[in-house]
Amino acid sequence: MKKISLLFLALSLSLASCSSGGSDSSESGWAMTAKINGATFQANNPFGTNEFSTTNIWSYYPIEDYVMLQGRAGGTFGNPEINIWLKRSNIAVGTYTFGPETFDTPPSHFIDLIDLATDDSESTKNGTIVITSVNTSTKIVKGTFQFTAVVDPSDPSSPVVYTVTDGTFNYKYE
Predict the structure, then answer these.
(1) What is the dihedral of CA 88, 61, 29, 118, to 10 degrees?
(2) 110: number of Cβ within 10 Å
(3) pTM of the model
(4) Residues 6 or more apart whose Cβ sits within 8 Å of residue 39
(5) Positions of the chain with pLDDT lower than 70, given as ranges
(6) How many other C-beta atoms can be found within 10 angstroms of the C-beta atom of residue 75?
(7) CA 20 to 30 Å from 109, out of 7, 75, 86, 103?
């Protein structure tokens, strides 16, 4: 019985450390925050923390070249999701602007929004990532972002379906 009690206590402490607020290293308690069309977005990585960036599974942004910061509202199967790719050689304080994604010439940094609640297929039109702090010892990167997404980025008249403003991120990267 004593072993079961100790096991239960250890499990309880383990689950308590996985709160939805993320790590204490984030001032807001979230790894990523933003306003999506004016609505509040607060997210951690798919595992519920900002303790590490997630593995980049897309070959057009290979893991050896890019770090992926993934903010997913609601955990592993949450929605919506914002993905930020930072080129490893450019994880430095500065302002980085980008336009529509082209797989021929990958950008230095890039953001994508995935919203499974709509039938729209959205693509990033343009945006800005500002890296405000990088600690190469602890591998913590912090910054801000904003961007817009449209249905067809190659069509100048394509309506904006998402405007993302007031974005922040605070992640430990690998």
Answers:
(1) 160
(2) 23
(3) 0.76
(4) none
(5) 1-28, 50, 52-60, 75-76, 102-107, 118-121
(6) 14
(7) 75
* Contact (CB, 8 A) for 133 and 120: no
Side chain identity at 12, as an amino acid letter?
S
**Tokens (6 digits) for 78:** 């949450």
In percent, the amount of the chain with pLDDT more than 70 equals 70
Determine the Cα angle at 169 with ends 165 and 173, to 5°: 150
What is d(CA 37, CA 147) in angstroms, rounded to the nearest whole number? 11
3-state SS assignment for residue 3: helix
Q: Which of 87, 103, 82 is nearest to 148 (CA)?
A: 82
Q: Distance (Å, rounded) from C-alpha 147 to C-alpha 149?
A: 7
The conformation of residue 129, written as its DSSP 8-state character, comes to E
Q: Tokens 């922040």 label which residue?
A: 168
